[in-house]
Amino acid sequence: MLGSGIIKGLAVTAKNFVGSFHDPERLPTVEYPEKRLTLPEAYRSFPFLVFDGENAIDGLRCVACKMCENECPPQCIYIIPERDEKGRPVKKPKVFDIDLSVCMGCQICVEVCPFDSIKMDQVFEVAATNRFEGLIAHREMLAKSNTYYHQIRPTEAAEVDTRLAEEKRLAEEKAKAAAAAKAAAAAKAAAAPKPVATTAPASATAPAAAPASPAKPAVAAPSPSPSSSSSAAAPMAAAPKPPATTP
Amino acid sequence: MQNEPTSSAPGLAGTPANSSFDILHSPLGSPQQGASVREVNDPFHGDLLEVSMGPHHPSTHGVFRMVATLDGEIIVKLKPVFGYLHRNHEKLGENTTYLASMPYTDRLDYLAGMTNNWAYALAVEKLSGQVATERAEYVRVIVGEMMRIVNHCCLVGFLFNDLGTSFTPLLYAFREREKFLDLFEELTGTRMMYNYQRFGGCRVDPTPEWLAKAKALIDGFPRFLDEYEQFLTGNEIMLARTQGVGRLSPELAINAGITGPVLRATGVGYDIRKVDGYGVYPRFDFRVPIGDHGDTYDRYMMRILEMRESVKILQQAFRDLPAGPIIDPKAKNRGLRPKAGEAYGRIEGPKGEIGFYLISDGSTNPYRYRVRPPSFINLTVLEDMCLGHSVADAVVILGSIDIVLGEVDR
After folding, report:
1. Which of A27, A45, B234, B317 could be cross-linked to A5 through a Cys-Cys bond (beta carbons 3.0 to 4.6 Å apart)?
2. Do A2 and B236 touch (CB under 8 A)?
3. Chain B residues touching residue A13 (CB < 8 angstroms)
């Protein structure tokens, strides 16, 4: 019969219309600003820098090795290493900028970082009125505590902490062995060769790996609950408090 | 069925001789002939009209422009104009490392990023002599076939938008697509820009929970397809608008290098999954749907049938997924320097053959990086398919080719 296909189709439409009142399968939308979906742990938006301890800038794990800067496909990372008064590099970034209007969130920087210092954030509401003030993230804006990292990615952060703690333990053992060897050598002869630097840079800059369970946030962390989706919605600049001195 | 008052227009050939709806009830019934151009000595002959459609009209699927020369409402000439979205993709690929090109490939065909990743990974693996692990090959099939379903959901939805059914079929299809994108987000971190494949495997291993969720989704998918087909496939208006519209002959399709569902709709059985048998595809039992008439309706049915076959492949892949490492522990991704040489890696993407041709000179960047985009090459026969049809049909024909401008322009 002519029109039977249309009538069958309308039956489907009617089923969907009626279903949208009681069947969540047929009404999957969420009224976004008021209600939010929980983001999956793997969700990624833009990179941020992890710091340990209380001070955002001193505790940065980043050693300004520029690995991410070299590998970044759209070249949105800009790093100047810090130097002491004699001009020697001190394994800290003096400038660490990420141009968020260029960044495409591919997380290649995270993959290439040997020190687990750059990770992907879950903040996606980064709209700004000014491209140069709002969307170029400086190191103060990028630095976020390890506690925050545990909040957004509990599994991955726990793995990273275990790995860093292991590296630190190995480095300490090595240092101890080297010290013992040095003492033995010193006892043997006064002109013992100086032991080479043994501590790995990552563990040297990480004072203590944070516990796996989220403790009190070091600085104003956006949300205490890791499962709450509002942690991802906190404005990016609210996470760390910038120190008084800026570079 | 043409909409113009055919009986009063003298010399307008090609209106369906049989105006009854009999043909509509056989899905692949005798196709209608498209209306041909009016005779030049027609006393009512007017001037030809040139209409520029696009570059931003929603029915042109992005920043694409069709310069159509019209005789009345009939297209006598059609010039596709593109390049508005050109962003130097191939030159970028020559100036970045092999790994750094991977996220850019997501942006080629942004509705099917995973298959682009896969084709590129395959090309670099060939070039550098790396082999993906067994588990990774299965995971690639899983995500690749899911990507095909996502792409075809989009395509069918947009095709019906072009037909004038404003948004209802599209949103039903998108509702289903959203579930797949949620799964992709859980696995890779993003909904569309995955950056998931690596040389020698995949970036992250899907967890058992993820696999269980994906399997449940796939098992429920045929139910959606049945409902969707009940909704659309028998619709008389859709049949009248698509059957016999935009016919493509198999000879022209082969000569123009058309691939994918557009080629198979003409009756040519050419599927790279079967021809090349890349990855672990030879281990799966699936059929390749072949059309008969090469018209818009066949192209629509190709997509529906391919989704059903994808479900079959996925169920086998979930069943046989082996344990093991997801990426070869010795795989080299960062700082990759393949030996000098060339390689071409191609897979059957949702839109056709997507291939990457790479020449290495032994440095960290490819010397030449070339994409073989299915959208672009399938677009070349647009004029041949549109000639003699009305403007409204041209929109539908364009929709049935399935183009994404990110890939056409690169």
Report:
1. B234
2. yes
3. 168, 231
